[in-house]
Write a structure and sequence with these properties.
The chain has helices at 3-14, 97-104, 123-138, 143-162, 176-188, 195-201, 206-217, 221-237, 244-250, 256-267, 271-278; strands spanning 25-30, 33-38, 49-50, 55-60, 70-76, 82-83, 90-95, 117-122. The protein is of the alpha+beta class and 280 residues long. The strands form two sheets. Strands 1-2-7-4-5-8 form a six-stranded antiparallel sheet, sandwiched between helices. The mean pLDDT is 85.
Amino acid sequence: MHQVNVNSLITKLAGDSTQFNTSEYDCYVRDGFGIFIPIFVDKEKQAFRHKHPAYEIVINFDMNADKPRHYWAAITSPNVLHEKNKSMHCYSILIEKEYFETRFQMYELKIPTFKDKQFEFCSDILKALNTFVFEYSKAMMNSDITLDAQTEIITHWMIRSIFGETLDMRAVSSDYSVARAQHYIEQHYMDNITVDKLANLGYMSKTSFNRRFKNEIGITPIEYLIEVRIKMAKLMLKRKDNPMTDIAMRCGFGSSAHFSSCFQKHVGISPSEYRDKYAN
């Protein structure tokens, strides 16, 4: 892509050079969408408050994490002053205002003003971002078409994540027996599901199924079931009118104590703390 055109696209998303120094980033930009990855941080300007014409989503990576399956991001609306991100280990995604809002209103008509609002998203969105960067860099045949398609997918996945939908797209396995078990878990997570039951769905032994599932997904079937239950509990916790005991029962935990213990272990905070932090 011609450099003059690239600079013009960057300015439309990030603002002029006083707001955004392109020398500090590797830039992968399309009309209305861009991914910016830091390559240098000007320490004199680390605390610089700035704003952009576009929506900014910043993903900060914990470099000490052991291959996390979920990440946290923060979104800020256009023309809202905020601190410059201080980390070298991050992605900054800028999405043109009209483009983002048109997609957002497919989910909810009222668009809030975001100021560093945090939300959780699954690792597969990161895979999509990396695919975008790879394809952009390689300039493959018909890449304009595929990059536009990836822009659309990434934007929708981000918006769904803001609403609490963090389902891993990896749940769609190419292995029939594993995929069938995962689909069953997604639909019956509130029931008493056993590994024997899931293995029978794939017409195989419990031992073979356990091994195949973990090889495909990276966790055991029971660990996957708990992840799904925690995901559904998070959605219910965001409504203050859902009693804690009801959430525990409806998500298949059996008791409030078991629910609280599992939630604390997987999320790092108690269900009550999560509700206080994220309830609408």
